[in-house]
């Protein structure tokens, strides 16, 4: 049976840069937010990232887990509390919201911030998990620099894949974009730009079957032609998977409006959702930028929007 808890001012669902930043701001404002940070990997995708070199204030870089731990400790310093669990459901009761966790605990809050992020879609092939962070990446702007002068592969056929290939061509000795069909979802201008880039090769009608490597990281890929079924080995040290993201919003079940891909829609540049008192920030909203710093900035905005809402409700 669910255990009822006293009402909070604000509950933040999710962690990572957006959730932790919202917690810092709300804590400093005296709201003592409860952060339901996730059961398995509190801290979001940066927990699985090694060196973060593009977060302002760290000229020598910082490990992803260290950055998230520092943000969490900063939020705790200002009165935030944390629960390591996932949220099963959120119900809107007008002046308050009810949040129920997977473990059956129930909390009430006057406002809720959703910062559950998104998940990279994965290939699901041998070697992908083993070499994640050691050659397999899901973010070109995060990790491209580490493959300067090395052969790189991008897997995907949409605008994101072509954007990543274009960006990575600044670093890699070569970039091979692999796509399972002979046509692309990407816009014509992106495809034309890639074809004009002498460092980018397009390998169509092909899929990656396996990622191979050693203690030094990724060394090669097994590629299968879907028409002939022939396999070949392709040398590569960096594999960037760009087949899309899935926002972690299924648990909301109609609470707020979402677009056809599942991303939460917000009101203009604010973080206000379609439901009063519910705000959203980070990669569960942002399908374009998906950076730690932009998520943190949105977490700040969500905290300020929530503060305004709480003040108005108190009047």
From TrEMBL:
EC id: 1.8.1.9
Supply one GO CC term from the record: cytoplasm
The FAD/NAD(P)-binding domain covers 9-299
Q: Which InterPro entries match?
A: FAD/NAD-bd_sf (IPR036188), FAD/NAD-binding_dom (IPR023753), Ferredoxin-NADP_redctase_2 (IPR050097), Pyr_nucl-diS_OxRdtase_2_AS (IPR008255), Thioredox_Rdtase (IPR005982)
Task: Name the enzyme's class.
Answer: oxidoreductase
User: Which Pfam families does the entry mention?
Assistant: Pyr_redox_2
Alphabetized PANTHER family for the sequence: THIOREDOXIN REDUCTASE 1-RELATED-RELATED
Q: What is this protein called?
A: Thioredoxin reductase
Can you name the source organism? Bifidobacterium erythrocebi
């Amino acid at each position: 049976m669910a255990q009822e808890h006293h009402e909070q001012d604000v509950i933040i669902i999710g962690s990572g840069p957006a959730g932790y930043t919202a917690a810092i701001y709300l804590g400093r404002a005296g709201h003592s937010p409860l952060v339901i940070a996730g059961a398995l990997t509190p801290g979001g995708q940066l927990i699985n990232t090694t060196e973060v070199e593009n977060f302002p204030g760290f000229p020598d870089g910082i490990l992803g887990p260290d950055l998230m731990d520092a943000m969490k400790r900063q939020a705790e310093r200002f009165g935030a509390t944390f629960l390591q669990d996932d949220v099963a459901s959120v119900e809107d009761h007008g002046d308050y919201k009810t949040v129920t966790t997977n473990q059956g605990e129930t909390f009430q809050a006057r406002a809720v911030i959703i910062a559950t992020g998104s998940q990279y879609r994965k290939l699901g092939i041998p070697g992908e998990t083993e070499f994640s962070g050691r050659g397999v990446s899901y973010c070109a702007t995060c990790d491209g620099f580490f493959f300067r002068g090395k052969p790189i592969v991008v897997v995907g056929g949409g605008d994101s894949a072509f954007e990543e290939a274009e960006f990575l061509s600044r670093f890699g000795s070569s970039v091979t974009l692999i796509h399972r069909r002979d046509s692309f979802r990407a816009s014509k201008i992106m495809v034309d730009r890639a074809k004009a880039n002498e460092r980018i090769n397009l390998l169509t009608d092909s899929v990656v079957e396996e990622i191979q490597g050693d203690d030094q990281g990724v060394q090669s890929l097994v590629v299968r032609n879907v028409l002939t079924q022939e396999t070949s080995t392709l040398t590569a040290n960096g594999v960037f998977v760009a087949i899309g993201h899935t926002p972690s919003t299924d648990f909301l079940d109609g609470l707020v409006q979402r677009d056809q891909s599942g991303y939460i829609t917000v009101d203009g540049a604010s973080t206000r959702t379609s439901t009063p008192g519910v705000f959203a920030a980070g990669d569960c909203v942002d399908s374009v930028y998906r950076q730690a710093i932009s998520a943190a900035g949105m977490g700040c905005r969500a905290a300020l929007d929530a503060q305004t809402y709480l003040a108005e409700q108190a009047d």
